User: Which sequence fits this backbone?
């Protein structure tokens, strides 16, 4: 019998899960429904990550004494947890796992673990490996330069954020995020009508683009129409000041 939407939602709420982040695609959810999950490029893995940066059987997540551990399975490229290299690690909710070109966020079974950076993950689609196509069928050994470049790129995508004067922050990631009087990020000022600016991801950097000819937009004191944001940039839109910074974690 097919599961109802309510049943699927309840399963997601009560089940630890991995949030699978894919470049330029919608995030997806992989439920940790069993106590042992093999991760790899091969078809015999429960969580298939079909890319040459991932070994055929790369790592294993296993529930031991009520907690989840991840361990390397002799892979070529290893993995990182929160930007640090490990061979074995006890996962906590919010930990970010980097395996090759993939970024996975472990989320526990508490009610609050169904939110990631203020957004509910309950109704995200279940992970489908077909959305990420492999370019080769042999294991690819990444150089340290490639690993560092991939780490910087994904780190900027997932951790680059806009900080408001009141301490709130927003992560654009690879989704358009708008500024304005009735936008995601509020702007104060006399000439702020509708959406006045927007941030998009161009596959390597976050781009801030002016959307209103009448509202002043400055980055580091200079008026702009469009600019690639750099960490530490000071942004002024209307009378509101923001900072673009790297902020890791939830």
Assistant:
């Amino acid at each position: 019998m097919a599961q109802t939407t309510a049943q699927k939602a309840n399963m997601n709420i009560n089940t630890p899960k991995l949030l699978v982040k894919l470049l330029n695609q919608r995030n997806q959810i992989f439920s940790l429904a069993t106590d042992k999950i093999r991760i790899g490029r091969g078809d015999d893995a429960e969580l298939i990550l079909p890319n040459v940066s991932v070994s055929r059987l790369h790592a294993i997540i296993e529930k031991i004494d009520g907690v989840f551990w991840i361990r390397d399975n002799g892979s070529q490229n290893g993995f990182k947890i929160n930007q640090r290299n490990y061979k074995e690690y006890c996962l906590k909710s919010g930990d970010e796992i980097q395996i090759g070109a993939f970024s996975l966020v472990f989320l526990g079974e508490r009610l609050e673990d169904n939110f990631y950076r203020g957004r509910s993950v309950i109704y995200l689609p279940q992970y489908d490996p077909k959305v990420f196509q492999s370019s080769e069928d042999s294991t690819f050994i990444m150089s340290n330069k490639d690993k560092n470049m991939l780490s910087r790129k994904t780190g900027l995508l997932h951790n680059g954020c806009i900080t408001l004067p009141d301490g709130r922050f927003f992560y654009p990631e690879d989704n358009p995020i708008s500024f304005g009087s009735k936008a995601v990020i509020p702007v104060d000022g006399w000439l702020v009508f509708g959406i006045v600016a927007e941030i998009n991801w161009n596959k390597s950097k976050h781009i801030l683009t002016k959307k209103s000819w009448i509202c002043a937009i400055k980055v580091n004191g200079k008026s702009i129409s469009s600019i690639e944001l750099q960490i530490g940039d000071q942004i002024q839109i209307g009378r509101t000041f923001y900072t673009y910074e790297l902020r890791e974690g939830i």
In short: The CA atoms of residues 50 and 232 lie 35 Å apart. Residues 1-10, 134-138 have pLDDT under 50 and may be disordered.
